[in-house]
Automatic annotation (TrEMBL), chains A, B:
Belongs to the DSD1 family. This is D-serine deaminase, pyridoxal phosphate-dependent. It comes from Saccharicrinis carchari. Pfam families: Ala_racemase_N, D-ser_dehydrat. The keyword Cell membrane does not apply.
Length: 364, 364
């Protein structure tokens, strides 16, 4: 086994495949369609593990990512970032080859794209059910009905339904708090079906976010689910209560470059360009940039948390450890860091090393 | 001119070259050697703009980056991250071809590398002059003398001098505060020469960091300077007082995807995977992830700040704007975002588009 000598993103294939299988089964249990978000792994190889579970339809977060997965034989893709008229060329290239869905939230975008498109595309109207990032307010039936009248006139834009992302679940810390966000959001979302089903009987409702899909279950009336982060999970999802530490499928191998026993700190080669600067406030009010665990070759022991990453610069991470852990670490050792936000860490590392020693590539 | 339709990192070549020239002249004014840090741009093409200023010696922050620049004809490289014995193979590959300097801070690393190396390398001992990230405490003459005795015995490790990085200048907000950090740090640093010059008359002192090199001038006794960020500067450096807004050489072009006049917000396709999650506390106590400016084609007007990026998710940025600015922006427009930390933004984008329309590649 070749030793690890630089920051390397390890991937436990069994844990990852178990995460995929579990979520696929949950969605099946709700009689829902599973259209997983591929923005977390961004990898054609890992995508095939979804195909093994019967998944053919996917979600991505940019047209660039859609092009990558289309090149890798994915034929049914929703680009879940709001499209505008400047995306016409991207849409035309993709829609010539695959079944493409886009997301809109402005009436003028609908008209502009109808003029600019060469092929039919499916259209979701993005609605805001409480997160307040993007989307038409789900209560704003006047605006929504105006957009739907617009979509009745279009030949290239085919209305499919509504899409929402309750991203405010990321601020929660337990199942009760998740329910408190999900229930009113679902109520607003499902009301769209009630109000509009006479005119649009085939309307689909598409729901996102890993926290709610991991712990909530009463999704009656929702047609499609687009969680993404669950493929790897991370420390943030552990704190939300969406998973256990042992469900985290990725871990950054980080060489120890210095030890400072006088301040119970070790310094690793693992910085903002590897982990990202996403921090997480712990229960004690302190901030972590990753939980440090013991590595066993290319695998890690999530039960043995050695410390927390307390600060990051470009290439360095400073880890605080206990007096007991301090003497067990020395320069030249390699420790593991469970990321706070695996989507951002994977996006930075651009490659995984599986626990059985294979490099797995991502979109470049 | 082909329109911008996705997040694109613009680079103003004239501003960038002026930044390089100004810093090269400052260092010349101190009779110092300029060994700029290339971690900010990570680009062989931009590196050539340094060569035009007569620069032949450079600094990088990882062995991976050293391999990239060695492949691009740089023959004298300091890897300014503390090396340990697990770097022996990387050092051997590089030192066979180029003049390589490494940085150490542990006696046992010196002994282990002496056994593992095949070629001579220059060695800087990293000293901590107040930043408390890595390095031997500059006051700890006992440890330093032990390391130097070790280095007297080695045949592959050739002692060059001491290297420090006063990274705590990044917490400052004006020239006076920078001086308050730099002066005691320099005093500790220069004392090493005083104490050890009899035994090591050729000893070099190597100093880092953009804030101090941009505004401080009294570096008598320091031999070499390694600032890096100045090549692009960024909003953080503006707030520190190291540069003006008009000195920032990079700007992220960000498509507007939604407008929310009811909350004076616009949403752009520019998220944590483009800008990084580095935040900056402004004078009013609020946090920004980038200053939003008006784009003119591929150039921008740094005098016209339209708003601040207030939050980031993976692909989205939420920008707060004034009531006056709000009606001037619509979906499909493209705005500019001056990054908080250009090193991290460039590292994520992996490519620049120069204002005259050429793509400039970086290390992949």
């Amino acid at each position: 086994m070749s030793p690890i000598f630089e920051p390397t993103l390890l991937l436990n294939e069994s844990v990852c495949k178990a995460n995929i299988k579990r979520m696929a089964e949950r969605v099946k249990g709700w009689n829902g369609d599973f259209r997983p978000h591929f923005k977390t792994h961004q990898s054609a190889r890992i995508a095939e593990w979804f195909r093994e579970q019967g998944i053919e339809r996917i979600t991505v977060s940019s047209f660039k990512m859609a092009r990558y997965f289309a090149q890798n034989a994915w034929k049914d893709i929703t680009v879940a970032i709001t499209a505008t008229q400047i995306d016409a060329a991207s849409i035309n290239t993709l829609a010539a080859k695959i079944n493409l869905n886009i997301v809109v939230e402005e009436e003028q975008t609908i008209m502009a794209l109808e003029r600019g498109l060469q092929h039919p595309v499916g259209v979701f109207v993005k609605v805001d059910t409480g997160y307040h990032r993007t989307g038409v307010d789900a209560d704003d039936l006047i605006k929504i009905k105006k957009m739907l009248s617009g979509l009745r006139e279009t030949k290239k834009l085919i209305f499919i339904g509504f899409l929402t992302h309750a991203g405010n679940t990321y601020g929660t810390r337990n199942k009760v708090q998740i329910s408190e966000i999900v229930e009113p959001a679902l109520q607003k979302f499902l009301a769209l079906k009630t109000f509009l089903k006479d005119h649009f009987p085939l309307m689909q409702l598409s729901w996102g976010d890993t926290p709610s899909c991991s712990v909530y279950s009463d999704f009656y009336g929702v047609d499609e689910f687009r969680p993404g982060n669950f493929v790897f999970y991370d420390c943030m999802q552990v704190q939300i209560g969406a998973c256990q530490l042992s469900d985290i499928a990725v871990c950054l191998a980080a060489p120890v470059i210095a030890v400072h026993p006088q301040r119970n700190e070790i310094v690793v080669h693992a910085g903002a360009v590897h982990l990202s600067k996403e921090g997480l406030e712990l229960a004690d009010g302190s901030t972590t940039y990753g939980s440090v665990v013991k590595l066993n070759g290319r695998d890690w022991d999530s039960e043995q948390v050695l410390g927390q990453v307390r600060s990051l610069s470009q290439e360095h991470g400073i880890i605080s450890v206990s007096k007991q852990v301090m003497p067990t670490l020395k320069p030249g050792d390699v420790v593991g860091v469970l990321p706070v936000h695996s989507c951002l860490t994977a996006n930075l590392m651009k490659q995984f090393l599986s626990t059985d020693g294979n490099f797995i590539e991502m979109m470049k």
